[in-house]
Amino acid sequence: PSDTSPPPAKVTPPVAGASDEAGKAGVAEPGATASGDQGIAWVGDLDQAMETAATEKKPIMVDFYTDWCSWCKKLDSDTYTDAEVQKLAAQFVNAKIDAEADRAAAEKYSVDGFPTILFLSPGGEEIHRVGGYAPPEEFAKEMQTALDKSKPGS
């Protein structure tokens, strides 16, 4: 167990989970875990996401998570790092909302399990929902369904 720890003479506190998580994900860039998944640009505020969506006329993907949710972490490490998921995410305004910090948003959309991913129109109307973890290929299909439903006339 001590073979992965720094030598006792060098006392530098590790950044919370940085080396462990980055190593597991095969990510070598410094700060990779601090900003989460590099390929998806997330905002942490639903109102900001809605303003951006209205301006850019894009649907919104909202990931409601909690810090203690292991499936939320798996979604971050496995699904959101997938190239196809990242490509589709570029067609959305993406928001990551801590459901415990922003209970009002979670209650507004009746979110009661985690992760819950909502797909909203630029005006904030729910157009699609994914409850729970989905692996990359399945999640990409859900994203495409949401994009199809977001198009005018669908």
Notes on the protein architecture:
There is one protein chain. The chain is of the alpha/beta class. Helices cover 37% and strands 16% of the residues. A hairpin with a 5-residue loop joins strand 4 (116-120) and strand 5 (126-131). Helix 4 runs parallel beside helix 6 (136-150).
Task: Describe the structure in brief.
The protein is α/β, with parallel strands linked by helices and 154 residues long.
- Discrete helix count: 6
Helix content: 25-40%
Mean pLDDT: 81
Distance between the termini: 56 Å
In oligomeric terms, what are we looking at? single chain
Q: Secondary-structure element order, as H and E? A: HEHEHHEHEEH
Order of strands in the sheet with the most strands?
1-3-2-4-5
**Beta content:** 15-25%
**Global geometry:** globular
Q: What would you report as the Rg, rounded to the nearest angstrom? A: 17 Å
Number of E-state strands: 5
- Please summarize the sheet with the most strands: 5 strands, mixed
